[in-house]
Design goal:
It is built from 16 helices and 20 strands. The chain is α+β, with helices and mostly antiparallel strands. The chain is elongated, with a radius of gyration of 37 Å.
Length: 683
């Protein structure tokens, strides 16, 4: 075979073979990559959905516990179905995002009270409001209720005998589905029946042979092939959340590419036929270098030879290798930086309950990910009428508060939509003078629990490197994940607060009081500082409950708690002791000062009548109290000892005529006047 033929075949080979191999490899790699991306999205979505569903069930459990601990014992003891109905109706209709179902039943399973929000199931589905028999079976035997996720709490007597059950829950319906994150589609399935679905076509069919929770399988839904997984919303045999992602269609070799290959083959053959033997050696050397570069050996270079044209080819090939080396080094550095940033962010978001640290990592990781210069995270003031900078990196100046609706961050906080400056179009808000200036800005809202929690702003100072729409999309997705962690921290803080406060009076509960009392007792003993304790009991309070009802009694307790709190100092610990009794810890106060403080509290409680807001037909009530005072260590060296001494003094105040203050172990230490007239509270 002659030289021209060999050269032509050579050109044909180096033209067609790499191109065909590249197309085939690209097809295989892209198909595999798309499949992996779909699986990762399903796994992440399943984890996020399970976390969200667990959070919703935890809120329902909180409501069931709250009702069981505050209302249920009294109602179940009396067996009053009307009272039970009022309790569950009031607790479920009150401003509440914790549950849609609330049920109270006695120890025999008899439903005393139940209230349901209307479920939103797909048309024609069997999920309906359950009957009393179904509810009783669910409470007593743990049987599932179609379409409902219940949290059941037992109500026990002090003797540990069961009084009954309180159950709160949510519907596994369209409303729940709309609050869960999923990449492609989602549906709620019970025993193969679709109760709710994001796709109406799926809602009209059935869903059998579903994969087990955590497994990914190929299914056909509504005539479409999808990758799907399931998340157990309750028991393993109960409701499941079906998540799916439409499978990527196989890539096909475009016909236009074949049309280009034919001219390329002919041209290569013509060029190879024309070339003489003088160019064979340089071309072969160039081909070898090119193949080495294509294989990843970017250190290969080609010495110029064979004339000006081949010399230019050698120079271009060498330049290309150098640029590829530089680009590869940049990509590897960027990849390592991104991996470190995301790893740091993931570890922080998944494990930290420190809000300040979490927010700082969010800002720093966002800056590193987008190769930006500066960043700020804005949070709302308590009134939600302005923003302030919670975390700033690279700002370097004091940033004033920004009114909601003013500037870029204020506008994003108001409308809940991300913006990029500069951007195409005229709808971008004008930045405020109170915001840091920069030629390029990104601002995205951080949304949780249905409202904007804050605004993440990223600044770029290089005029030649504007942010792209992809950067905005990346930051938006990043902020969404960070918002979940931020919301979890806030929920943790709220749970901590609720665990130490009395739900009626919003004072500290007795559990918190005991912790503080132990700490203050230890400090008083170590540093020989005075410490006193008060027990406050409302006079004739039983008369109020018996005559006007417990709702009026609750109004009296709330107002008295407010007056006691207002009459004490900031370091004093005011807590509800139980029923109509309150307890106050006075650090740094001896007996004389404690008696003086007690008289101030007694006067504040009886200073004016209590207006009843829940019953218009009840006139304002006069309220008085009796207070017992004890001092450490004179009347006790332990918290229990002080409580006993103060309680004995309080009962002495009762026997001496009420509406007075009595110090423990002191004769004639009572102060205050006789019981006032009118509707007085009685213990």
């Amino acid at each position: 075979m002659g030289l021209r033929a060999r050269l032509a075949l050579f050109f044909i080979a180096i033209t067609v073979i790499p191109l065909a191999v590249a197309v085939i490899v690209l097809q295989l790699q892209l198909s595999e990559r798309l499949d992996n991306v779909a699986q990762r999205e399903l796994i992440a979505s399943a984890a996020a959905s399970r976390t969200a569903a667990d959070a919703f069930r935890a809120r329902a459990a909180d409501l069931a516990t709250d009702v069981a601990e505050t209302n249920a014992a009294r109602v179940l003891t009396s067996g009053d179905a009307a009272a039970a109905e009022r309790v569950v109706t009031r607790r479920l209709r009150a401003p509440n995002d914790r549950a849609q179902i609330l049920v109270m039943a006695d120890s025999d399973g008899r439903i005393l009270g139940s209230h349901f929000a209307a479920p939103r199931f797909a048309d024609g589905r069997s999920g309906t409001v359950p009957s009393d028999e179904e509810l009783a079976a669910a409470l007593k035997g743990g049987e599932d209720i179609t379409g409902a996720l219940l949290e059941v709490r037992e109500v026990m007597r002090p003797s540990r005998r069961r009084l009954g059950w309180v159950a709160a829950g949510i519907w596994a319906d369209q409303g729940l589905l709309e609050r869960l994150p999923y990449p492609g589609g989602g549906a709620v399935v019970v025993d193969g029946e679709v109760l709710a679905a994001s796709d109406p076509a799926v809602a009209e069919g059935s869903a059998d042979d579903l994969p087990a929770p955590g497994e990914i399988a190929q299914l056909r839904l509504a005539g479409t092939s999808v990758k799907a997984t399931t998340v157990a919303l309750g028991d393993e045999d109960g409701a499941r959340l079906l998540l799916w992602h439409t499978a990527a269609p196989p890539l096909r070799l475009p016909g236009a590419l074949l049309g280009l290959l034919v001219p390329a083959v002919l041209l290569a053959a013509a060029v190879g036929w024309v070339l003489a033997s003088g160019v064979v050696a340089p071309v072969e050397r160039a081909a070898r270098v090119a193949r080495s570069v294509a294989a990843g050996d970017l250190d290969q270079t080609l010495e110029p030879s064979g004339g000006r044209e081949l010399g230019a080819l050698a120079g271009a090939l060498n330049t290309m290798s150098a640029e590829l080396r530089e680009r590869l080094a940049q990509l590897e550095a960027s990849r390592d930086q991104l991996r470190q940033s995301l790893s740091r962010l993931g570890q922080t978001l998944s494990s930290s309950l420190d809000l300040d640290r979490t927010l700082a990592v969010v800002v720093e990781t966002a800056i590193e990910t987008l190769s930006a210069n500066r960043g700020l995270l804005w949070l709302f003031t308590p009134e939600r009428d302005a923003l302030y900078v919670k975390v700033g990196r690279g700002v370097g100046q004091t940033v004033a508060r920004l009114p909601v609706g003013s500037g870029l961050a204020g506008h994003v906080a108001r409308v809940g939509v991300a913006f990029r400056i500069p951007a195409d179009g005229d709808s971008v808000p004008f930045p405020s003078d109170d915001e840091p200036s920069a030629p390029h800005k990104l601002a995205v809202p951080m949304v949780g629990r249905g409202r904007v929690l804050g605004v993440l702003t990223i600044l770029g100072d290089d005029p030649e490197r504007p942010f792209s729409q992809d950067d905005l999309d990346t930051l938006r997705s990043f902020a969404a994940q960070a918002s979940v962690a931020m919301e979890n921290v806030m929920l943790h803080r709220e749970a901590q607060r609720l665990s130490v406060t009395d739900p009626l009076t919003v004072l500290w509960n007795f559990r918190y009081f005991q912790l503080q009392a132990d700490r203050e007792m230890e400090s008083a003993a170590r540093f020989e500082r005075p410490l006193s304790l008060l027990i406050i009991d409302l006079d004739h309070f039983k008369t109020v409950n018996d005559r006007f009802g417990h709702q009026v009694g609750d109004d009296v307790l709330v107002e008295v708690a407010r007056r006691i709190q207002a009459a004490t100092r900031v370091p004093d610990v005011v807590a509800r002791y139980g029923g109509e009794e309150f307890v106050v810890l006075l650090p740094g106060t001896g007996l004389a000062g404690a008696v003086s403080t007690s008289e101030r509290i007694r006067a504040a409680v009886s200073a004016s009548k209590v207006t009843i807001t829940t019953a218009r037909d009840v006139a304002p009530l006069s309220v008085t109290c009796s207070i017992g005072v004890a001092e450490h260590p004179r009347h006790g060296t332990t918290v229990a000892g002080l409580l006993r001494s103060a309680d004995a003094a309080m009962y002495l105040a009762k026997t001496q005529g009420r509406d007075r203050v009595v110090g423990a172990g002191i004769d004639d230490s009572s102060v205050g006047g006789p019981v006032g007239g009118g509707e007085a509270a009685r213990r």
